[in-house]
UniProtKB/TrEMBL annotation:
E.C. number: 2.7.7.-
Domain THIF-type NAD/FAD binding fold: 4-231
Origin superkingdom: Archaea
Family in the record: Belongs to the HesA/MoeB/ThiF family.
MF terms (GO), sorted A to Z: nucleotidyltransferase activity; thiosulfate-cyanide sulfurtransferase activity; ubiquitin-like modifier activating enzyme activity
GO cellular component annotations of the record: cytoplasm
This protein's name: Adenylyltransferase
Keywords, comma-separated and alphabetical: Nucleotidyltransferase, Transferase
Organism in which the protein naturally occurs: Sulfurisphaera tokodaii (strain DSM 16993 / JCM 10545 / NBRC 100140 / 7) (Sulfolobus tokodaii)
Length: 287
């Protein structure tokens, strides 16, 4: 407990014990996800599952505190796991080198006490929301764009879920554009997501969406009501789980690949790269 002696002065022994028994899942291990993993590891969450199929690139380093130049070309989820074990060996970390889809997402999240959204794509975010709402798992949303960000604690059937207020218009949402951001925005957003979990563990049911304009230092607290026409928490249609929406064609997509199963390897082709983990392969389409 010496490790947590200063933290115990703030959180108390009972909450520290709760953290040790906690199972959380972080979906995405880019800038936001890796920062979340580091924060959750340091505060002593007992079990962390981290999901990402991507590899570290040099263009990630300006906003990703956990990765170094030595990690370029390695799987993000595995680097997150290694680094987290170096920080706090008492924490159990499971790294899943995969992307979520309608066939695996429910299984991946269903034993979690909290799920952290560290995704950068609206389709996958709403798919994750569908799974968390269906299984009544608290979801902690974090969205980053430029010098803006927003966070929200989703408590299924108690407050607004993401599908209550985020509109998915189909394919046009999946334009393959690169959205920049800064490490200051990413780290602050991840910190606020973890703070929402701590406050909820202390009994606070926070129903607000927090919106931050860092450039102008404007922080807004927006009360959002549940939407009675919400396709997830009101109508239980779960359109993303039921494959009713077209999947994005950019970022990382699963591909079928012929040939030998030779462990982790990367192949370059004209559209981008193919990343394989054994016989499971993903195409990374350049944005
Ligand atoms: Zn809803």
């Amino acid at each position: 407990m010496e490790r947590y002696s200063r933290q115990l002065l703030v959180l108390g022994l009972e909450l520290q014990q709760k953290l040790k028994e906690l199972k959380v899942t972080v979906v995405g291990c880019g800038a936001l996800g890796s920062t979340l993993v580091e924060l959750l590891t340091r505060i002593g969450v007992g079990y962390i599952k981290v999901i990402d199929a991507d590899i570290v690139e040099i263009s990630n380093l300006h906003r990703t505190l956990l990765f170094t130049e030595k990690d370029v070309g390695k799987p993000k989820a595995l680097v997150c796991k290694e680094r987290a074990k170096e920080i706090n060996n008492e924490v159990e970390i499971e790294a899943i080198t995969d992307i979520i889809d309608e066939t695996n997402v429910e299984e991946l999240v269903k034993d979690s006490h909290y799920v952290f959204d560290a995704l950068d794509n609206l389709y996958f975010r709403l798919l994750l929301n569908d799974a968390c709402v269906k299984h009544s798992i608290p979801l902690i949303y974090g969205g980053v764009m430029g010098e803006y960000s927003s966070v929200k604690l989703v408590l299924p059937y108690k407050n607004a879920c993401l599908s209550c207020f985020l509109n998915y218009e189909g394919e046009e949402e999946n334009v393959c554009e690169t959205i920049g951001t800064l490490d200051t925005i990413v780290t602050t957003t991840a910190s606020l997501q973890v703070q929402l979990m701590l406050n909820h563990l202390r009994g606070e049911e926070d129903n607000n969406l927090y919106y931050f304009d860092f450039r102008n230092m404007r922080f807004d607290k927006i009360k959002i009501e549940r939407n009675e026409k919400c396709q997830a928490c009101s109508l239980h249609e779960f359109r993303f789980l039921n494959s009713k929406e077209k999947k994005p064609a950019c970022g990382i997509v699963k591909v079928e690949k012929e040939g030998p199963n030779n462990g982790f390897h990367i192949e370059k082709n004209k559209d981008g790269i193919i990343i394989c983990y054994g016989d499971k392969c993903f195409k990374k389409v350049s944005r």
